[in-house]
Amino acid sequence: xKVEKFMKIVFHEKYYNSEYAWDPAASAGRLEGIMDKIxxxxxxxxxxxxxxxxxxxxxxxxxxxxQNIKKDKLLFELASLAAGGAILAAEEGYxxxxxxxxIRPPGHHASADSCWxxxxxxxxxxxxxxxxSEGKIKSAFILDFDLHTGDGNINILTNRNxxxxxxxxxxxxxxxxxxxxxVEQYIENLTNIDIFVASAGFDQGxxxxxxxxxxxxxxxxxxxxxxxxxxxxxxxxxxxxxxxxNHNVLPNNLISFCEGFK
Length: 262
Fold this sequence. Notes:
By secondary structure, this protein is of the alpha/beta class. The protein has a single domain (7-261), classed as Arginase, Chain A, CATH 3.40.800.20. It has nine helices and seven strands; from the N terminus they run E-H-E-H-H-H-E-H-E-H-E-H-E-H-E-H. The longest helix has 22 residues, at 73-94. It is globular. The protein starts with 6 loop residues before the first strand and ends with a helix.
C-alpha cells in the first residue's frame, strides 16, 4: 500500500520575532495565524531549519553586503535563519517532498550588493545556488506571484557567467482569468527544468494590496506547479513566503496555495 507523504512546512519559533525591523513584513502577528492554521492540519509536518552559513550567503551576495547586514546583530540572525529555512526547503523539495517555508524576512528584492522592499538576503537565490553547488541541479523555474516584481531574483539568477539557467515568471496580467492563463501558458512551454520554486507573496490577494486573486486562485497556482513539476522534474518543488500583509486573510490564501501545491 502506498503511503502518502506529508507536506513539509519549514518554520522556526524565532521567525515570530518582529523586532528586527519596522516594516509590514516584520509586523507583529503576521505569522501566528498562518502557523495556527498549519498546526490544525494533520497533512503538514513542521521541520526546523538552521541558519545559513556565510559560505551559502556569499554564493548570492557580495562580502560588502554581508558585512552591512551583520552590523545589526538581530537582523543578521533572522535573515540568516530565513536563508537557512530556504535551504532546508530546497533540499526537501529536491527529494520530491513538496515544501513551503514560512520564513521572514522575505528575500526577492535583495540583489547581490543591495536590498530594499523589506528584504535583506535573497532566500530563493541562496537556496537554489546551494543545490547547484552540490551538483544537484543545473536549471530552475521560479514563479514569483508576489504583487511586486522580484528584481533581486532576476539580478542574481539571470545572465549568469556559469551554466546555471533560471527562468522566472512575474505574472502581470490585470484580470484573474488572464493572470492564471498567463501562468498556465508559460509553464506549459517549459522544458529542461530541474526544480520548481515559488516566490510566494500573497499581497496580490483580493483583500490585500493588489485586490486581484482569491483563495481558489492561489490553489490553482499551487496545483499548476504540482502538475508540471511532476511532468518535468519528478515533482521537485518548494515555495518561500514573500509578501502578504492582511493578517486576517493571509493564512487562508497561504493554506489554499499549499492545498494545491502538496
